[in-house]
Amino acid sequence: MDNLEQNIRQLVEEVIKSMNLPSTSINKEKKLGVFSNLNMAVEASDIAFKEFTKISLETRKKIIANIRKTSSEYNEILSKMAHEETGLGRWEDKIIKNTLGIDKTPGVEDIVPETYTDDNGLTLIERAPFGVIGSITPSTNSTITIISNAIGMVAAGNAVVFNPHPSAKKVSASIISLLNTAIIEAGGPVNLVTCIDEPTIESAKELMAHKKIAIMVVTGGPAVVKTAMNSGKKVIGAGPGNPPVVVDETANIPKAAKDIVDGASFDNNVICICEKEVIVVESVADRLKEEMKKHGAFELTGDQIKKITELVICDPGGPGHEGAAEKTYVGKNADFIAKAIGLNVPSTTRLLICEVDRNHPLVWTEQLMPVMPIVRVKDVDTAIDLAVDCEHGFRHTAMMHSLNIEKLTKMAKAMNCSIFIKNGPSYAGLGKGGAGFASFTIASPTGEGVTRARTFSRERRCTLVDYLRII
Length: 471
Ligand code: NAD
Description:
471 residues; 16 helices; Aldehyde Dehydrogenase, Chain A, domain 2; 20 strands
């Protein structure tokens, strides 16, 4: 992978040369936007933010377009780098995931002003930036969280300092360099997006406490969201999920089966929205499993289920307790996980499925791997009740396959999630095969839902009394 990094470094150096940037604006290693010290990164982004406020909206649109273009050009390289560095997921799926975020994260068009006019004149509501945002990003969607957040945050006029996950620090630094080249090429300031080369939990805490950071946007598990919420700053918190998928007797079973395998095995289940447990009405349970097997699922039985549970669960979850998965197997291929219990499955296997009872640890734990528990229940109402319980009140994501509009509506209301997908794979909720825009920061704990440029803006009202209304 050294060649790939070399490739990116070369591009960055060429841009630096062609831009004639003052040497003071670049760090020693000539990786644009990457600093060895957090305070330096924040100070550099603060200067960039001030320059950015003087730049026109037209230039801002060009910057976003160039971020999309550059990220697309380097998508395959970045996907392979992320896979190699983190050991998570499938690089082919990461290309699709990145394309979705690059193309469908809203840009400057998302912060259009609103106007009100009446007998008293005109009121204008515009969306202003917060300033320098601190963004903490996960290992699981390491590349696209940075790209997608950068698009939304810069489109809203902000600068951003990223504290990436330590296990994705190299690929993250490469993205930051690429984003800087794209921004500079399109007429923006250097260091509008920055990061540090050795991010840690300590540097994340430093970022949260820095006085020049206006707000924190935190994407990760429960610990980081909790820590950020205690920082005293405004937080947009995107936390964990444990998305259930309910299938009832009215569903189109072959389609439901394919959608579940496709969604749950996408990037080996590392995305927070992926289906994590299936709850199926007993009259269609056998058919659902048979159909899932036609689309790349392999069913574990008897002792294999016991062995796989002992392998991949290190803290068994249960009602009211989230549990924890064994990190060694997070984001690994299904055949690799099967091999670890002495089972050879075809390398084309996308998902290991196993029928378990409702109290089984796999149902209550966010495994983030292609091991899918299936629970058989007597009717759809029981399925919905269990789905609400095992989602732990995260209010993140849930799916349902049904043609009964009353039950679809019942479950949508009962789950009360940021994303609810009816009759589709989980990624339809992020705009792939479903209507709408994409984001990889889904803020359930703080309520913003699927974030976008307007989420990263402050609303400002300007009222002009008596005049300027033209009718
Ligand atoms: P993680 O929580 O281990 O790490 C996320 C980030 O937080 C990293 O940058 C890490 O260094 C930092 N961090 C972790 N603990 C911290 C603490 N106590 N103080 C300060 N910083 C801390 O998560 P991960 O394994 O990289 O990602 C998987 C988790 O993130 C899953 O739970 C998944 O559901 C969640 N996630 C949620 C979303 C969403 O949009 N809601 C998106 C992606 C991932």
